[in-house]
Amino acid sequence: MAEGKRWRFAMVCSSNMNRSMEAHSQLGRAGLDVESYGTGTHVKLPGPSLHEPNVYDFGTPYGAIYDDLRRKDPELYKRNGLLPMLKRNTSVKLAPQRWQDNAGDGVFDMIMTFEERVFDLVVEDMNNREPRLMKCVLIINMDVKDNHEEAGVGAKLAVELCQKLEAIDGDWEDIIDDLITAFEKQHKRRLAYSISFY
Asked: What is the DSSP letter of 130?
């Protein structure tokens, strides 16, 4: 990678609501070039019970979801943190986007996922695309529990890892193993990674 070249990062979780959006928000504030996505078939948020989730289509604006939940039960959704989360999301971008539907968003240098199932879906999606540019992309998974507190911790670690990657002088392929091993030791977190091609 040429010196001074900025990396493009994609943060991906299941619904593009909590973990990927917290990371998107923090990376953006750190001045990094970032987008975020979900890999699910729908956007799912906790409802009044385990069997009654709130389900929305990708592309439904965060503001519309906020208004819908506020209309349904403002106390419940304030207490469980969904309303503050959606308020944060509206300040980052318009609506949740689905990874598989956004191949037109261009090329990323690194894609970060926050659970193994999402990592597998992203790797599978990249492997199903026909490589045209022969440009490699680093896909990293760091498991982060899907709650507001853990999302904040995960996002801070994501910022740190992305800054380390962007600071690499020369080819990241040569030092990625060492960088990941050092990061795992320092933060006592296991990372998985894969390399795919655009």
From this structure: P
Structure tokens at 134: 């022969």
Q: How far apart are the first and last CA of the chain?
A: 15
**pLDDT tens digits for 70-82?**
999 999 999 999 9
CA distances from 58 to 38, 53, 102, 141, 151 (A): 8, 15, 11, 22, 20
| Residue where the block lists tokens 């740190």 | 160
Q: How far apart are CA 154 and CA 145, in angstroms?
A: 9
Instruction: Compute CA distances 162 → 1, 110, 112, 158, whole Å.
Output: 15, 8, 9, 6
User: What is the CATH T-level fold of the domain 8-40+98-197, as seen in this structure?
Assistant: Rossmann fold (3.40.50)
- Backbone dihedral angles phi then psi of residue 58, each to the nearest 5 degrees: -60, 145
Residue with token string 């917290």:
22
Closest residue by Cα to residue 178 from 197, 160, 163, 191? 191
Domain boundaries, the chain: 8-40+98-197, 43-92
Distance CA 95, CA 105 (A): 15
- Joined together, the tokens standing for residue 130 give 């026909």
pLDDT at 174 over 80: yes
For residue 39, what are its two tokens?
């890999």
**Structure letter (DSSP) for residue 98:** B
State if pTM tops 0.85. Answer: yes
